[in-house]
User: What shape does this take?
Amino acid sequence: IFINWIGLGMAAPTLLIHGTEEQKQKLLPPIFSAEDIWCQGFSEPGAGSDLASLQTSAVKDGDNWIVNGSKVWTSLGHFAGWMLLLARTDKQDKYNGITYFLCPMDHAGVTVKPIHKMTGESGFNEVFLENVVIPDNLRVDSVGAGWKVAMSTLTVERGAAQGVGAIASAESPFAAIEQLIDTAKRTNRNGRTLWEDSTIRDRLMKVYERTEALAQSARRARVNAINGGSMRIPLQGKLNGSEIGQELHQLAMTILGPAASLYIGDANAEGNGRWALGYMNTYTGTISGGSSEVQRNILGERVLGMPKTK
Assistant: This one.
């Protein structure tokens, strides 16, 4: 599921809402079976938080579009067979000049260059598009409706991210907490186990409470989405999930002590070194998909009705 989280959590919901019947029939089954892995081509070197400033262009040529430009921070780009792509079809209109495409990654002119992280992994990529030909039947919704479609994708992305942000070290955040409790019970420090330390127990229980609240919120968001309700809940989920992930791994560093520095591949590493990897990865969670600061601004303006900051 993790390797296909963009397909399941972003591409599929977007296609269900905005895709044609032909697109749904062709593309949804291989997403659900994980035959097709997807990535997201939104951010650019000069268009991150101000996404509508993107400059990748798409020019109509008969029944095709010729796309030129570049994308950055493209998660799973080196694995993906398809990309959700935003391109500018009208230079005069910032928002209504954007169109949404589905780009096959094996098309001529698509070049992917992995970005190596401090963890040694290459989770992000640069993607270069040089005269890439995309058929018009791979356009989502109408020409110029890309910003509207992108807002749907970004909303469900934040819902998907609330799970990913806390799962860096286990199959679920609850499993991660159970691992930490077990480790605390086995770890002696200053003549007693860490589980006997009330401060450690208090921090573990607070993380558990926040995680349970997040899980209940996610269930509510799914029911809400099925019934066509507000998409505000995923915004809160992304913000809380990414910050819980950090809190969980900070606590793991405290419990593990010096052993927290042992990395993947070290035979003595707790959890095969996944905690150290998870600790570093969770700091991307409060940036990707919209930073925590951006999420708080959106919640304040769109949910609470507060005035925009200047």
The domain at 165-303 is CATH 1.20.140.10 (Butyryl-CoA Dehydrogenase, subunit A; domain 3). Confidence is low (pLDDT under 50) at residues 162-170. The two ends are 40 Å apart (CA to CA). The chain has two domains: 2-143, 165-303.
